[in-house]
Design a protein that fits this description.
- It is a single chain.
- The protein is built from 4 helices and no strands.
- By secondary structure, the protein is mainly α.
- The longest helix is centred in the middle third of the chain and has 29 residues.
Length: 91
């Protein structure tokens, strides 16, 4: 959510990123279909890899343990670091 919000605000009414233009140019003809696996398929696979441990934690019947708290703190720390990096780059 943090990254999506940051990118939406940063790119609102901005021209298309030159990197995406280059990807599209390299994969013509048929980029519309190729993008399903080049762009969206890869993102879906990465989301699955990232979300699998979270899913396992959600469906677990056991109460929270110290390792769960450490994991939550790690997520919060990472989010804070990334948010700070985004703000620094924006400035």
């Amino acid at each position: 959510m943090r990254l999506a919000a940051y990118l939406a605000l940063r790119n609102w009414n901005a021209p298309e990123d030159r990197r995406y233009q280059a990807i599209r140019a390299r994969n013509q003809p048929g980029f519309t279909w190729k993008s399903l696996y080049l762009v969206f398929g890869l993102q879906a696979l990465l989301a699955l890899v990232v979300a699998t441990p979270l899913y396992a934690a959600i469906v677990a019947a056991q109460p929270l343990h110290l390792l769960d708290v450490v994991g939550a703190l790690l997520v919060l720390t990472g989010t804070l670091i990334e948010s700070t990096a985004d703000a620094t780059i924006s400035r």
